[in-house]
Design a protein that fits this description.
Elements: H1 9-12, H2 16-21, H3 24-56, E1 59-64, H4 71-80, E2 84-90, H5 92-103, E3 116-122, H6 128-138, E4 143-146, H7 147-190, H8 192-200, H9 205-240, H10 242-249, H11 256-288
Antiparallel strand pairs: 1-3, 1-4, 2-3
Helix pairs in contact: 3-7, 3-9, 3-11, 4-6, 7-11, 9-11
């Protein structure tokens, strides 16, 4: 199966000119670098979406209009309701203080109605209908809002970005495969006379293919590892800015499984280039007959 890796040294010298000129390794290195960075971005986005989904899965907010005059009563009621695990009140004054960042002094104007909020978590199976009825009895204008409904557009955007990242990985892999096909056909044209001589002394198409397959596999491996190492260095530099990265990803990082996937990508790119080179050379040789 891997006999093409052990081509005799005299036969390998037949493609010595290609070894000095082939740009395949550089092309694969660029592709590998780009693929790893894009894949790492997609995995980080997936982790961010997962962390965010878990954080808001059982998170709700009680919006109390008119400044929340019944805020204390509502907070006490929520704490006594079965299924409620935690309650955190955000009074009107705190809401206005937050709004000052964008509105300035206008945030303290009495003409600006600012509701109070009560954030609370519930266990699975909690009776939200009963909870809503108890809240309405105390503050008729209050309403319960699920955080997942508010954050749904953001989660949709993160999912879309993951799909885009995955699509770019596929496109770059296809571009790398196309570059390998061009390199293989170019090498065949360069060594057409040598191939004719080999055929004349009894060499088969498969034996000729092994020569090109081995050369391109080595170039692809060197290029993939080089591009992967460069991408790893960039990712390590980005990971050094942990505070900035934390703001972007919500604290999500690449896990062990993600690192294993990224480490396997250069090998997968090498395997793809080797298979494509084999198929391209065999097809070109058979078309020439």
């Amino acid at each position: 199966m891997f006999d093409w890796l052990f081509v005799p040294q005299p036969e390998r010298r037949l493609l010595g000119a290609v070894a000095r000129r082939a740009p395949t390794a550089w092309v694969i290195a660029i592709m590998s670098f780009s693929i790893l960075l894009i894949a790492a971005t997609g995995l980080a986005l997936a982790n961010t979406a997962s962390v965010l989904s878990r954080a808001i899965e059982a998170r709700y907010a009680l919006e109390v209009p008119a400044g929340g005059a019944q805020l204390d009563a509502l907070t006490s009621t929520l704490r006594t309701m079965p299924g409620v695990t935690s309650v955190e009140a955000v009074p009107e004054s705190a809401m206005r203080k937050i709004l000052q960042r964008w509105l300035g002094p206008a945030a303290n104007s009495s003409d600006l109605p600012v509701p109070a909020l009560v954030n609370f978590d519930v266990r699975q199976g909690a009776d939200l209908v009963r909870l809503q009825a108890r809240v309405q009895a105390i503050a008729p204008g209050a309403r319960i809002i699920a955080h997942r409904e508010s954050v749904a557009p953001l989660l949709h955007s993160l999912t879309l970005l993951q799909v885009v990242a995955f699509g770019l990985v596929l496109l770059l892999s296809a571009a790398a495969a196309a570059a390998v096909v061009l390199a293989a056909r170019g090498a065949l044209d360069t060594h057409r006379f040598t191939i004719e001589v080999m055929h004349g002394i009894g060499a088969t198409d498969l034996q000729v293919t092994h020569l090109f397959q081995r050369k391109i596999a080595i170039d692809a491996f060197i290029g993939s590892i080089t591009g992967g190492a460069a991408a790893a260095a960039v990712l390590l530099l980005l990971a050094g800015g942990s505070a900035f990265a934390g703001e972007l990803t919500g604290g999500a990082t690449l896990g062990v499984k993600d690192i294993i996937v990224l480490a396997l990508l250069p090998l997968a790119l090498t395997a793809l280039a080797t298979w494509v080179a084999r198929a391209a050379v065999l097809r070109a040789l058979r078309e020439a007959l």
